[in-house]
Amino acid sequence: MRIVDLATCRETTELAATPSDGPRIVVSRHGDRGTQSIVFRGRTVLTVHETYKGFPAGSPGPILLKGTSPDKKWILSTIDPQGSASLIADGIETRAVRATGGRSYAVASGLGYADYRAWCASNLLIVTAGGDRIASDNKRLIVTGPPSWHARLLVNEPTRAFGSVACAPDGESVVVQETPQSLDGSFFHTKWRLWRIWFSNGSQKRLTTPPAGYVDESPHFSPDERTIYFVRSKRGSGQLYALRGGEVIGPLLSLGYSMGYYGANAWPYSVKR
């Protein structure tokens, strides 16, 4: 993991830590039959029965963990249907189960990118939902959360599509990348820009207007909420920028090249104190 101090431009490298206290998947197979289980803190939380006859990766398919709620009371997961990269690319259903076990609940269906969901509190999850691998097609911003997991639209505007989302540290708003609704599948034809949306009254504010040919993606808040970092890219070449007091600052750092996938591009960086 590469770490850059933006105040001094000094670079260091660290090995990414592997969480040891999170949920894990346990697989048991006997011939053409088997099970997969989510195990958390020594307790089996959920078990899925698999058949491998005719399905090398199993059917219904491998369980993929999607993390826990901030209070560790809920576990999110999905199933990769038959281990198919093609099927999963058009969207999957995320489900939630209590860390103590019990029934699972549908959370949302959509692309499985980690930055397409953000916890704004222990009981408030913002998700970019909607199937189809084209990132600019039918991507809605919804609000859901435990214990009922009933979802509602945060923005009801079908002419717009949403992508990567970041929750403000105060838990009262999100910053999200937005583009006009489009069926254009070209990887570099999106027109992402950043908006801030508040939960209390649904008010919205456009934050960035990238130059022609550029897009603004992958927002992250600084811990004090005063700065929003994001990636401004052109045809897959990205640079890190900052937005502070309404002023765009940068470029701060080159992030190299990433072509993304049908207009979605999760730039691999994070912000620390």
Structure, described:
This protein is mostly beta strands and 273 residues long. The chain folds into 2 domains: 25-110, no CATH class; 113-273, TolB, C-terminal domain (Neuraminidase, 6 Propeller). Helices cover 2% and strands 49% of the residues. It is built from 1 helix and 21 strands. It has one helix spanning 85-89, and strands spanning 2-4, 11-13, 24-30, 33-40, 43-51, 63-68, 74-79, 92-98, 104-110, 117-121, 124-129, 140-144, 152-153, 160-167, 173-180, 193-198, 204-206, 215-221, 227-234, 237-244, 247-257. The strands form 6 sheets. It has a 4-stranded antiparallel beta sheet. A 4-stranded antiparallel beta sheet has the order 10-11-12-13, with no helix packed on it. The radius of gyration is 20 Å and the shape is globular. The chain starts with a strand and ends in a 16-residue tail after the last strand.
